[in-house]
Design goal:
The chain is 0% helix and 31% strand. With 81 residues, the protein is mainly beta.
Length: 81
């Protein structure tokens, strides 16, 4: 990811086993605050899946989604403006 670019964040409030996302580099935050875990940076590299070591959510890359999009859609975190 280019320096200074926005790193998307994803959450798993609904306790899904797997979440499809458009990013390969992102931060997992577990659940929405105040129930979040440390916001950990994850990088899939050449792989198409990664498991968060804190919450065990399986993230699967889906190239049809935008960088900050997820299925289910509620898993994508939008920072408050």
């Amino acid at each position: 990811m280019a320096s200074g670019s926005h790193t998307p964040k994803f959450r798993n409030d609904s306790g899904e086993r797997a979440i499809r996302i458009g990013a390969k580099e992102f931060k997992c935050m577990g659940a929405s605050p105040p129930n979040d875990h440390p916001h950990i940076f994850l990088d899939m590299g050449e792989e198409t899946e990664i498991v968060c070591p804190y919450c065990s959510t399986l993230y699967t890359h889906d190239s049809t989604l935008g960088n900050a999009e997820a299925i289910p859609a509620g898993a994508a975190w939008a920072e408050a403006s």
